[in-house]
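Long-time lurker. I teach an intro course on protein structure, and each term I like to show students one example going from raw sequence to a predicted 3D structure in token notation. This year I'd like something fresh instead of my usual example. Would anyone be willing to generate the tokens for the chain below so I can use it in lecture? Attribution to the forum is fine with me.
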Amino acid sequence: MKILITGTAGFVGFHLAEKLIEQGHDIVGIDNINDYYDQELKFARLAESGIAKEKVKWHCEIGSSKHPNYRFIRMSVESKGELMSLCSRERFDVIVHLAAQAGVRYSITNPDSYAQSNLVSFLNILEVSRHNPVKHLVYASSSSVYGLNASMPFSEHDNVDHPVSLYAASKKANELMAHTYSHLYKIPTTGLRFFTVYGPWGRPDMAYFLFTDAISKGKPIKVFNNGKMKRDFTYIDDIVTGIISVMEKPAEPDKNWDAQKPDPSCSTAPYRIYNIGNNKPVELMSFIKEIEKNLNKKAVINFMEMQAGDVTETWANVDDLINDFNYKPETTVESGLNEFVKWYSEYYS
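-- Reply from a regular --
Happy to contribute to a lecture. Here you go:
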């Protein structure tokens, strides 16, 4: 298939592109390479895929030196005209939209960036999918949408109308916007609610990365809510496997959908929402101990109060993903953190 992936200089986008290239698909990747976190890491990911930093210019298409079926363009998804021109020219079979302004806490201090990156950009993706019909649009949502929900594990069939951060609200808005376009224009759309993705080439703003960096340098780490947190940590390989499985099976209307008792995860339109997580929440302090073990260093911990916009626990119910795609997350936290720390030590050596 010919596939457009947005955000290929990012963590998940980079890994997904690598896997799809390996499978022989024709991939076009786009990314604006913003400075939300270390741009050099983003360029290093691209270099790993055969895209040389010195050749990366705005709006110029670059072929990979390693993969004849991979091309990269530095552009912003906010540029509707440029995006429309690209999609009209290429006629993609599938779009996987991963580019977004990430970060729960960053959304509190920089709200404007979320309106542009997560709302305007997603509208542009929907519009190009409408005018240049694709077989399937798959996009990244987030476990953050569950907000104040306390029923565990989190289920796609529950209402999620109480987000606690603008980031979460923007992801919930994406799901609503996707449903509208699926209903009006019959575009098959599938939203994937990611649960705390980690692994090699990860994001430096994520807790596991910050912990590893600080512990390795003998610096104190900040542990919020006095360590009384749980996260459904999901290894990157399991995320990529899930995305590809979903991507290859476009969403379809649910013939049994009941308007009297509306299920938020599906519709009479070709629209689906899935959780994608490990389904095994881990206590934060246990997670930190595993990092300590891999680094062979003890953490200096500063316990802090709960942060605004954060939640105490995440836990993905992935029954639907298992039933529909035989999804089986296989990577343990022990194995995943070992791979991450190994990569971190090599990359920053």
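Some talking points for your students: Residues 111-131 form the longest helix (21 residues). The first strand starts at residue 2 and ends at 6.
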